[in-house]
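Let's study a protein:

___
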Amino acid sequence: QVQLVESGGGLVQPGGSLRLSCAASGRTFSGYTMGWFRQAPGKERESVATITWIYGATYYTDSVKGRFTISRDNAKNTVYLQMNSLKPEDTAVYYCRARSSSGQYEYWGQGTQVTVSS
């Protein structure tokens, strides 16, 4: 059974930092693209950053470029999202996703809340 378990969310002041973790288990994820998505209240879920498991190629949405960094630890089967210079508009539930290269298989975590507020 595939599981993606996010952790690391919380309350942080503007300008602060958080690191999210996504522990993946239940299958081999080589060939998959791992991603972080977020959904704020009343808004659609949006892609934040993605990384390919084998080559580590990354993508970032414009609003987080230069502030967020996605990475993975193959040995630990874990994907990270380092978030710096956080802004109130980064407040959302953050989800981890694993998607096969064909798009046939897709798995989601349960989400972790990030709140940026003074």
Q: What stands out?
A: DSSP finds no helices and eleven strands in the chain.
